[in-house]
Design a protein that fits this description.
- By secondary structure, this protein is of the alpha/beta class.
- It is built from 13 helices and 21 strands.
- Strands 1, 2, 3, 4, 5, 6, 7, 8, 9, 10 and 11 form an 11-stranded antiparallel β-sheet that branches.
- The radius of gyration is 26 Å and the shape is elongated.
């Protein structure tokens, strides 16, 4: 009877996932030593922790993994930065890399912890320097997942023909070993574990159907060019929920800055509501922005509360006209035009005044009402453009390139770039279907905007 039971268990072990040798967990570092790792540079083990200081590197010897789940516990210190690489060669070269970077002051602010570098760069780190965090990298067929503290940040499917620049040509799923390295400061690791996985071909076939065609995808091209991929102007409204925003951001590879509308008559109307909003956003993988609404917003919210956001933006679409009428330019029944040229001068005058408000980014720039918008270039003369740009330079404001309204025009963007202004890309969505910043990317190409021209948010913790 005992032999029959043993035989039955052996059969079960061959059938059930997780019971085979293929799925057996393997401890790669348990705090004792790194005898199974090839080390280079300053790599030391002390107090059950392996430390890489400066430029240190450790590559797993005799490792060959294709599909797997890798778990590790790490910490960055002294603004340390590094990478976890997989599918590398025996020297730790090639393959994909996942970033370890919690440095808020780092100039390359768009490659934070959890980034699948050059494929899905992340602008927001959900963990902090000098704190332990858990990193999970799962490769399953053509899918790569990266999670930090159980928050899924990357959900990427490699297509049959991935777009890669020549310098990134090794970023292809294949097989290989693991490599951990520090590139600056100190990176510490106290636990590494891997579980090999076995994936059926039917799973891969299903994944490829879901993959984005990267031959025509401008977003992967931005990542490959090391350009920050951030939509700076997204609202949770209509059907765009917090969960859908997370899912959609991962799917498209576009980071989102979420901005509540703050002002009298809007969802957030006082300091207490701002604090309540922030309590609900703790741990979320989004840059946090504030949209100031109306002209009363600077007096409605305290500086201390405004400074909680990574940046603040407003537009000049709300003002009081010369007859005392409250005007919202996007509402035709609130626009009263007697003389179009004089009304245009009023619009410019109001924009210049708005630049003295305590905001960082001027959005929906140079918007015109429906009655005048069909002659946008006619009304926005060089003289009027120069007045606005001079005011922006004087007050150190940032210019949004807006996808929803396709503004400002190319001429204004070129003048702004020549004047040294920084830029943001924003969709200003009305629901969950708001595209992939197509107009912004078009203007980026036509006006020669580089990564250095893009605005770096304050990135508060």
């Amino acid at each position: 009877m005992a032999k029959k039971i043993l035989s039955f268990l052996c059969v079960v072990s061959l059938i059930l996932p997780g019971c085979t040798e293929q799925n057996k967990k393997k401890i790669l570092f348990d705090g004792k030593d790194v005898t199974n790792w090839l080390t280079e540079g300053p790599v030391t083990v002390s107090d059950s922790v392996v430390r890489m200081d400066g430029v240190g590197k450790m590559t797993l010897e005799n490792g060959m993994f294709t599909d797997f789940e890798l778990l590790l516990t790490a910490k960055t210190m002294d603004n340390g930065k590094g990478e976890v690489r997989f599918h590398t060669d025996e020297n730790g070269n090639g393959g994909y890399a996942v970033a370890l970077n919690n440095d808020l002051d780092h100039q390359q602010w768009w490659t934070k912890t959890g980034s699948l570098l050059s494929v899905r760069n992340l602008t927001k780190s959900i963990v902090k320097n000098n704190e332990w965090f858990n990193l999970r990298i799962r490769v399953e067929g053509k899918k790569i997942e990266v999670a930090v503290n159980d928050e899924l940040l990357v959900d990427y499917i490699e297509p049959a023909q991935p777009y890669r620049t020549p310098e990134n040509r090794s970023q292809i799923l294949s097989g290989g070993t693991f490599c951990l390295q520090s590139t600056e400061g100190i990176v510490e690791v106290k636990f590494i574990e891997v579980t090999p996985l076995k994936i059926e071909k039917t799973v891969i076939d299903s994944q490829l159907v879901q993959a984005i065609d990267e031959s025509s995808d401008e977003i992967i091209k931005l990542h490959q060019a090391n350009f920050p991929v951030l939509d700076y102007h997204v609202h949770l409204k209509e059907d765009l929920t917090l969960e859908l925003a997370r899912s959609q951001s991962r799917k498209y590879g576009i980071n989102y800055a979420l901005a509540p509308n703050c002002g009298i008559g809007f969802p957030i109307q006082n300091d207490a509501q701002v604090l309540e909003y922030f309590n609900g956003m703790k741990g979320q993988p989004f840059v946090q922005a504030m949209q100031g609404e109306g002209r009363e917003w600077p007096a409605t919210f305290s500086k201390e509360v405004r400074d909680l956001f990574d940046y603040v933006f407003t537009d000049a679409m709300t003002f009081t006209d010369r007859k005392g009428n409250r005007t919202r330019l996007w509402m035709p029944d609130e626009v009263f035009i007697d003389d179009e040229q004089k009304y245009m001068d009023l619009i410019v005058e109001n924009i210049v005044k708005v630049m003295d408000e305590p905001m960082d980014v001027y959005v929906n720039p140079n918007f015109l009402p429906d009655a005048m918008n069909d002659r946008y270039d006619l009304f926005w003369t060089d003289e009027r453009q120069n007045k606005v740009i001079e005011a922006m330079v004087r007050t150190h404001k940032v210019l949004e390139i807006n996808h929803r309204y396709k503004i400002p025009n190319k001429s204004f963007i070129q003048k702004a770039k020549a004047a040294g202004l920084k830029f943001t890309f924003g969709t200003n969505n009305s629901n969950s279907d708001f595209g992939k910043m197509e107009y912004c990317i078009q203007m980026m190409k036509e006006c020669g905007i580089t990564a250095q021209d893009m605005y770096k948010p304050a990135m508060t913790e």
